[in-house]
């Protein structure tokens, strides 16, 4: 993008409805201090929303007490999110969208890593240091065994996620996602996404049970900031070249509620630690609510940590794991398509053309492969929370979001930063996970606004999908030996299927919605697709050219073969030309 100052006219900043316009549209380049401030804000938003996923991962791979691993997974997550954000904003969908860790992959992770052969049995560790699973001995000779256990689990997750992410790459590269969307509607998406959050309630309980008082305080602070005080504007002084030093205001509470959660609850936890209200015995359940419980990890962490593929060993692949991850990939893809259209609407851009959407999905697949390869244990997806921040701050400059990606890359390689995040007391981390998963559930259920809830057809499909998504995994966990075909790979495949709530609810909702008779209006398909079309009467500040790949799009248009590639800019032009020919042909027939 050219480093030019955005043009400001007398009507700039207002629409016909007297609503505020974007202060910095996509093509604008704010001053360096302004860019850094807004980029830091988006980075903090992404980091605070992303930390809950690696917290779940370290618990599932049996490394919850390993401070070094916790810190490295935090750093790797931040690093991967920065890399993928930079790629998505530069050559992907070309919209200001932050890429963060995806909750969609948690459900298959739980299914993969909690089957009988993979259980940690950490709760069975005896006080004398012995355990039937870890073979712990007082002299610490089990250290290598424990490291091998979590590395083996992480390698399985890495390999399965990398293979499954190839499906997302294929969907974006071939444009097949458009065909798939013809059969997917709100009654498939609502139970699928809702189950992503519902399936991790036990993880929230495990972290919160360390100290329910601190957990409640943290959650209350976050809820008050995000809901009760969402419209409260805090005044402060600001300076820019146009207005100089002037008074302005910002809805800061709704922008960074997780920061307020961490700071206030951490201060309370520090007071309880210093006054001796929290036990100093590491064996006590409330010990991990102390602020110094993980202090050693900060001191031992390296100042610089560079994630790289193969750091924890060679990734392995399991059939069940891949299938479960594919279901998560499709759910993440559908959610991202909605985010693209929402972001374009907020940024006063035209509806994203098919080549931009395809390229965005392609880049998300590549991003999940990158995230898996460096050992994060999860994929990446578009963050709708950060799109909401654009609507509040009126800052949609692509340069700001590219800078945010660079900032996250820098913070990701600072080992001490990741160790500090990992040292947050467990009940506070539990509150962050709880608030994050609650929002995921709400996002899933919000898709019900498009369907006719008075229809007995829709109510039966929704209720059955949700109930079976809870019932079948519960029964499988109570009866882990129920599936016995004689072939271990097939046993594992069915076990992962039947213990993944998201997969069961989504598959059942998809099947019933497409087989039970119903009109498109009743199913909500028509209203839902209209919402994705981004129809708006707002004055646009961008054009279709903004979706082009920088520097190479004009060159691509000169080569005919690129018109056949669904994720490149010439493809959309080829489609429009074909439609134009059909319309002209029909018009000529009518005239004759």
TrEMBL record:
A GO MF term: transmembrane transporter activity
Subcellular localization, as worded in the UniProt entry: Membrane
Transmembrane segments: 36-61, 73-91, 161-184, 212-231, 252-278, 312-331, 404-424, 430-448, 460-476, 496-516
Keywords, comma-separated and alphabetical: Membrane, Transmembrane, Transmembrane helix
InterPro entries per the UniProt record, alphabetical: NCS2
GO CC term, one of those recorded: membrane
Domain of life, source organism: Eukaryota
Mode of membrane association: Multi-pass membrane protein
Homology family: Belongs to the nucleobase:cation symporter-2 (NCS2) (TC 2.A.40) family.
Protein name per the record: Solute carrier family 23 member 2-like
Native source species: Lingula anatina
Taxonomic placement: Eukaryota, Metazoa, Spiralia, Lophotrochozoa, Brachiopoda
């Amino acid at each position: 993008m050219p480093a030019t100052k955005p043009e400001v006219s007398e009507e700039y900043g207002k629409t016909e409805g007297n609503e505020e316009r974007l202060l910095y549209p996509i093509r604008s380049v704010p001053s360096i201090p302004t860019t850094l401030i807004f980029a830091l804000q988006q980075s903090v938003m992404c980091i605070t929303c992303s930390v809950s996923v690696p917290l779940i991962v370290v618990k599932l791979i049996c490394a919850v007490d390993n401070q070094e691993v916790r810190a490295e997974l935090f750093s790797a997550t931040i690093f991967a999110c920065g890399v993928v954000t930079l790629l998505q904003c530069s050559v992907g969908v070309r919209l200001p969208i932050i890429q963060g860790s995806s909750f969609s992959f948690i459900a298959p992770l739980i299914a993969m890593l909690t089957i009988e052969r993979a259980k940690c049995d950490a709760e069975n560790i005896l006080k004398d240091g012995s355990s039937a699973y870890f073979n712990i001995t007082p002299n610490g000779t089990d250290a290598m065994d424990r490291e091998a256990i979590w590395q083996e689990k992480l390698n399985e997750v890495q390999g399965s996620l990398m293979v499954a992410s190839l499906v997302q790459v294929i969907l974006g590269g071939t444009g097949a996602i458009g065909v798939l969307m013809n059969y997917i509607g709100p009654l498939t998406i609502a139970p699928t996404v809702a189950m992503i959050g519902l399936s991790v309630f036990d993880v929230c309980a495990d972290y919160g049970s360390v100290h329910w008082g601190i957990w409640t305080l943290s959650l209350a602070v976050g809820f008050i900031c995000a809901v009760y005080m969402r419209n409260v504007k805090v005044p402060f002084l600001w300076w820019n070249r146009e207005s100089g030093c002037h008074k302005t205001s910002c809805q800061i509470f709704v922008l960074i509620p997780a920061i307020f959660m961490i700071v206030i609850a951490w201060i309370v936890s520090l007071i309880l630690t210093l006054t001796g209200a929290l036990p100093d015995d590491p064996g006590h359940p409330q010990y991990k609510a102390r602020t110094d419980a993980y202090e050693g990890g900060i001191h031992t962490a390296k100042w610089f940590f560079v994630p790289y593929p193969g750091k924890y060993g060679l990734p392995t692949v399991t059939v069940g794991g891949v299938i479960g991850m594919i279901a998560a990939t499709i759910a993440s893809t559908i959610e991202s398509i909605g985010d693209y259209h929402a972001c374009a609407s907020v940024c006063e851009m035209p509806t994203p053309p098919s080549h931009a959407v395809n390229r965005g999905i392609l880049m998300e697949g590549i991003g999940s492969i990158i995230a898996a390869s460096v050992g994060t244990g999860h994929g990446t997806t578009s963050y709708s929370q950060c799109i909401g921040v654009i609507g509040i701050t009126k800052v949609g400059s692509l340069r700001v979001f590219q800078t945010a990606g660079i900032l996250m890359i820098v913070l990701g390689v600072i080992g001490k930063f990741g160790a500090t995040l990992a040292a947050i007391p467990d009940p506070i981390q539990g509150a962050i996970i709880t608030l994050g998963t609650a929002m995921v559930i709400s996002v899933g259920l919000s898709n019900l606004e498009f369907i006719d809830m008075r229809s007995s057809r829709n109510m039966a499909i929704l209720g059955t999908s949700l109930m079976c998504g809870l019932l079948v995994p519960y029964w499988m966990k109570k009866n882990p030996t129920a599936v016995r075909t004689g072939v271990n790979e097939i046993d594992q495949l069915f076990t992962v299927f039947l213990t993944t709530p998201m997969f069961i609810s989504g598959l059942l909702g998809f099947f019933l919605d497409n087989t039970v008779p119903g009109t498109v209006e009743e199913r909500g398909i028509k209203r839902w697709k209209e919402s994705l079309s981004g129809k708006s009467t707002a004055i646009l500040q961008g054009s279709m050219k903004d979706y082009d790949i920088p520097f190479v799009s004009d060159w691509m248009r000169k080569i005919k073969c690129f018109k056949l590639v669904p994720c490149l800019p010439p493809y959309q032009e080829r489609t429009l030309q074909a439609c134009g020919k059909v319309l002209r042909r029909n018009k000529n027939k009518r005239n004759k």
